[in-house]
Amino acid sequence: MVINVLGPREYFGELVIDEGARSASIATLETSRFMIVTKDDFKALVTGNPDFALKLINRLMQRVRALTDNIRSLALLDVYGRVARLLLELAEEKDGRLVVSEPLTHKDIASRVGASREMISRIFSDLSDGGYVRKEDRLLVIARKPPPRW
What we know:
Elements (H helix, E strand, L loop, with lengths): L38 H10 L1 H27 L2 H12 L1 E3 L2 E4 L5 H8 L3 H13 L3 E4 L2 E4 L8
Antiparallel strand pairs: 1-2, 2-4, 3-4
């Protein structure tokens, strides 16, 4: 299951500071370059730079909140509700339209919401037939906000 998607200049691996076991693995969607900071250098940066430490704590709190929201969705929403939530989270307003510009396959969406690709295909068929979403110029356009429950 996809837990998080990070973009350019974002970081991961900060949990190394407690020396616990890794809680996730990563994979890149495209060729990437990384800067590796050793555990000792990272600890020195955190302990020697209070401004950085506060920014790190704030980012960790954001990630905990996002993970809590994901757990809540998995526990309380059906697959349709999780798909609707994901689409609305990813959507941005462009040229007066609500669009998801990130190129997502049904398999990608399934891995983010904890469902099968086949179920996502059925949901998108229903969303398309209902006039909620459509494809335009390689973008997914949200024509109208999907209802929270199907």
